[in-house]
Amino acid sequence: MFFIDDSVTVRHQFEDNHPFISDAKVSKNKDKFMLIPSIGFENDNQFTMIMNGWYYEPLDSNFIQNLIRKSFYGAMNLIDRSTKFSKEEQEERIGPFFVRDVSKHQIQLKISDSISTTVSTDDNGRFYAMIGVNNLQSLTIKQDVMKYIAFDDDYNQQGDEGLVYLMRTKNYSGCSIISDIDDTIKISEVPNKQKLIINTFKKTFQAVPGMANVYQSWRSSYQCLIHYVSAMPSQLYYVTQKFLNKENFPHGSFHMRHLKVISPDKYNLVKQLSDFIGHNASQRHKLTVIETILNLAPSTQQFIMVGDSGEFDPEIYGEITRRFSNRIKMIFIRLVDGGRNDPNRFENAFKNIPNDKWSTFFDAKDLPRKAD
């Protein structure tokens, strides 16, 4: 679906064709955006809007790329021959990794007729901007979600719509849910790496039963915002958002990691891949993201953190809670098969944190329906 604003065609994510499976004829411009839903904060009567995304271009098919793709699909079939997936599903999962990051390119971000800024993409094609706003009257806001438009500075006849979720202070008792994705709301079986690969790249995403209802209940009870903080590659944002839409999870901001697969520097590529899959990198990412959210959020904003025992969510959430003890309302950890579920682990992870501030659960029905 398209609409015209100031004689500009604006493309709506998920209402138009999927960017990795759509017909290239839809747009005259071959370069494309992935705009990641982000957050806006109100402090001292001023809003700070954060906008970030990824700018890339499709790669022309060649022998090496086709060989890599076929090798990857072959490896998937060796691990699991029972699951079949269509070409469209392949492109949704694998396509985002076979594109070229457009670096050092000017991107115009517009939040109203009079408020805009221009940023440059980095070496990974990523861009990030913070804009201060004193008056929200001229902005497109509905239910605390602000819309903005991103343009290629060289091709400004067509833009892409981005979303910013707003944390307010006036007349609001702010509530935020920081949620992991893999094995917290989506069955990934992270402790078993073969199953993790198949569940991520081949099988239809499956929701953890009941979690969508819990999140919707928390959201409706206290107008909680949702922040999906995950160590998975940001290239999987589209397929993950599609899954959340299908399973009726609340919309929210996303905080993922970019994985660069196509690079002329083979040594640097190997190093990046090695760093990405390391546990320390995953922990650093989550700690940094959550700490940044808490530092920027209004001081009245209270947080609930939900994760699982498959990797390091208990340790990460415990460290955050010790740093921001008056801001963390509750921690919930889902116990997963193959995870480290012994009580001593949780006692150490949540050392010096009151016992009534954290809880483990097997089933979503064990969670409260109100974020009290």
Describe this structure in words.
Helices cover 28% and strands 31% of the residues. The protein is an alpha/beta fold. The strands form 2 sheets. Strands 1, 2, 3, 4, 5, 6, 7, 8, 9, 10, 11 and 12 form a 12-stranded mixed sheet that branches. It has a 6-stranded parallel sheet with strand order 15-14-13-16-17-18. The two termini are 39 Å apart. The model is unreliable at 1-5 and 22-28 (pLDDT under 50).
| Count of alpha/pi helices | 9
Question: In sequence order, what are the helices and strands, one letter per element?
Answer: EEEEEHHEEEEEEEEHHEHEHHEHEHE
* CA(first)-CA(last) distance: 39 Å
Helical fraction equals 25-40%
Number of strands: 18
- Taken as a percent bin, the fraction of beta residues is 25-35%
Write a concise keyword list for the protein shown above.
twelve-stranded mixed beta sheet; six-stranded parallel beta sheet; 28% helix; 31% strand; globular; disordered N terminus
